[in-house]
Amino acid sequence: MTTNRNLTHDFSGPTVQERITCLFEHSQLFDIIADKPQAGICQRYGRGWSTIIAYIESEVNQSQRAAELFIRENAQVGRGILDERRKEKAYKKVMNKWMGDIFRHERAFRAARQMALSDSPSKEYMRKYRSNSGSGKGGTRAANGELMSIYGQENELVPSDLTTLDDEELEPIANFIVDWLMNPFVDYIGTRFQRFWHKLLYGKMRPAEGDDIEAVNARTISAIARAFVSVMAILFLVAPIATLDSIQQPKLRILVMALFGQLFATSAQFMGSRSVPLYMLITAYFQAMVVFLGTTSVQNVRQ
Question: Any stretches that span the bilayer, and where are they (predicted)?
Answer without folding.
Answer: 223-242, 278-298
